[in-house]
Every structure is written in structure tokens, then in C-alpha cells.
């Protein structure tokens, strides 16, 4: 198997091979070239796998994203995408060879972790990826949509204003607001400017017809938006609500839930602990569905990864980490003091023994170590250590990613 970086001349071949693997036809570009997810491929990060006789049979690529870690550090995070093997060449190790090649390239570039969205959750664990953030939908029937008043003096006055714009008239407003939001949200990834320019992605990055409710604070400064559409059956679907504070999020939810001619409101991409269910006067009015894994994380340099994120409790743990895919093993003493971690090799007895995929899953604070201990994936060497690890790995807020790539 010959695996090489795609040249500019091979770009069309790469795109065609991806589409055969997914049994899709390339979308017809809009006149301005927008609305096509593959337009954002970075050719120098696209890999083509060929057979001995030169036939392309596999593809894998990466986008150069930034990931927001707990504590606010922004770190380079290649976003793996366009992974495909022709139906004629599956289960012969093509993907395995591409993953090995790609992880080595990430390390050569100095990248210490990578991320992806998995088309099927059985594929990527063997390559060291673990599910680190989760998302779902919340559906609220309009006739049960009343919101509680704030309690216990927690009243945040909903001062500000909302304007409804057309997606096409928003200029760079959505891009700017998303960028402010993602810098403060653990688990969020950047949307590089050319994604917006090319319309590469799902709405509202892709410029499909949408209304955009833009929230402004009391000083008139935009601090959030929700993009939505209403279908013929009376379902108002919100693609995403992006805000830099909870007041804006509540105001935008109130607007959607009070919209006339609507029978139900569907909030897509809601994090597991979204406050809206608690705001509803009728808790069970908000029905969660389509709960799914979203961002998978793969650590490539454990000390760098653990010292890059922020920490919120002092403590120490000895982690014994195996990486079967890369045939590596390390034991590390993780010491956290005043929000910063030190992580060094040690020969002390381990507190937790775990696979690198499970370290990826708990890294952002969205999967608890104790859940994986109870699942039989992490071995806790003392009875109290799982709870200690839960406290240590927690993020300042639950990690969430809603960017599709
Ligand atoms: C980040 C993204 O881009 S997600 C998109 C992933 N791509 C797709 O879903 C497109 C359609 N599917 C495909 O193109 C291929 O089936 C791929 C890319 C998923 C797998 O490629 P292959 O070359 O067949 O994988 P490879 O032969 O290296 O498989 C390695 C192991 O993973 C297992 N595996 C591979 N794909 C799957 C799967 N979809 N479900 C369960 N197990 C799988 C294989 O059985 C094999 O296991 P084994 O080592 O125990 O025998």
C-alpha cells in the first residue's frame, strides 16, 4: 500500500475517491462555489492510499483546527475527516495503514492530540480515539413551553434586544460571534475563516436559507444568535444557539418558544446539561433525543496534553497508560497545584491503569473516569481513586462541540 500526501493535481481524484467510499455524488456547487463541505479540504493534509498498480483505494484528511481546552487554552487540533476506503478494498487493513501514517504526520508537525467525528462508533477506538463530548436534541411542544421565573434571587434581567435578520444579510456577524463563543467553551473547535467564505459545512456555515435571531446586550453589542427555520408541519428547528452568556441564551430560547404558528421547537446540538430543561415550568416538556457522541479525542503526547489543559482542584494521580495501536506504554505522575499540572514519568505504583482511548475520553472532562471504571475500561487500584479522578478531571463547564466536519 502506497500512502502519500495529495498533490494539487490530485485534488479532484481525492474528492472523487472520498465520494465513492461514501456512495455519494459530489454536491453541485452553487454559482459562487459555496455550500460544498469538501471545498475546505487542505490539500497538503489529504492522504491518498493506492494499490501497487497505482489505483486510489483510500482517503484520509485533516483540517487545521484549534480546540479549546478546560481552562481556556487554545491548542492545535487536526480534525480528521474524509476517511474512506473503496467498497472493493475494505477489511484489508487500508484504514489501519492510513491511521498509522496520519498519526505519525501529526506528531511530525508537533501536534499532541487529534480529534474527529465518527461516522460509526465502532471504528476509531482501536486507533486510540475516545468519545469526549456528547450532544443531542431537545424538543419542546409549544403548548408546554412556559418558562419558570428565576428563583432564590438568581434573577438576571433579560435586558437587551433581538433583531431578526436573514442569513444572507449577516455579513461576518455569525463568524465573529462564533469565534468569541468557542474561545470560552471547552471542547469547541475553531471555524477557520475560509469555511465561512466557502460555505463549507452545515447551516449556518453553509448559507442555506435561515432566519437569524441576533441578541444584543444592553449596550447594543451582539452577544448571541440562533439560526432557525420553520417547516410546513409547524416545527421550528434551531440549527445552533451561540451565545457568550446565559442571558442571551434564555432570551433566544424564549423567542423561539413563543413563536406563533409553531407546534414544537427543536433545539439541535444541546449539551447534556443544558439549563433549558430546568427553565421549563414543565420539566418533562423538554424531550431529549438523538443523544450521541460528538468529538472524539486522541492524545499523542500525554505529558504535553495534560499540562496544556487547566485544572480546578489540587491533587495527584499516577496514571499507567497503554497505547496498543502505537505499541507504547508510559506511567506518569500527574500533580495539579493552583490550576496547573505537572506530568512526569514515574515508577510509583499506579492509581489508575487505562488505555489511551479512555484517557482521550476523560481528557476534556465530559466523560467521568468513574463511569469508565464501572464500565470495566479503567482499572482503579484503590476504592476511592475513581471519585478523586472525577473531581480532578472536571472542567469549569461541561465540554461541548457543535461544529460539524
Ligand atoms: C472521521 C471520518 O471521516 S468518519 C468516516 C468513516 N468512513 C466511512 O464511514 C465510509 C464508509 N466506510 C469505509 O470507507 C471503511 O469501511 C472504513 C474507512 C470505515 C474502514 O476501512 P477498512 O480499510 O475496511 O478498515 P481496516 O481494514 O483497516 O479495519 C481495521 C479494523 O477495524 C474494523 N472496522 C473497520 N471499519 C469498521 C466498521 N465500520 N465497523 C466495525 N468495525 C470496523 C475492521 O473489522 C478491522 O478489525 P480487525 O482488525 O479486528 O479485523
TrEMBL record:
Domain N-acetyltransferase: 1-150
Taxonomic superkingdom: Bacteria
Catalytic residues (positions): 124 (proton donor), 405 (proton acceptor)
Keywords on record: Acyltransferase, Transferase
Matches recorded under Pfam families: Acetyltransf_17 (PF17668), Acetyltransf_9 (PF13527), SCP2_2 (PF13530)
NCBIfam families referenced in this protein's UniProt entry, alphabetically: PRK01346.1-4 (NF002367)
Similarity comment: family membership: Belongs to the acetyltransferase Eis family.
Name of the protein in question: GNAT family N-acetyltransferase
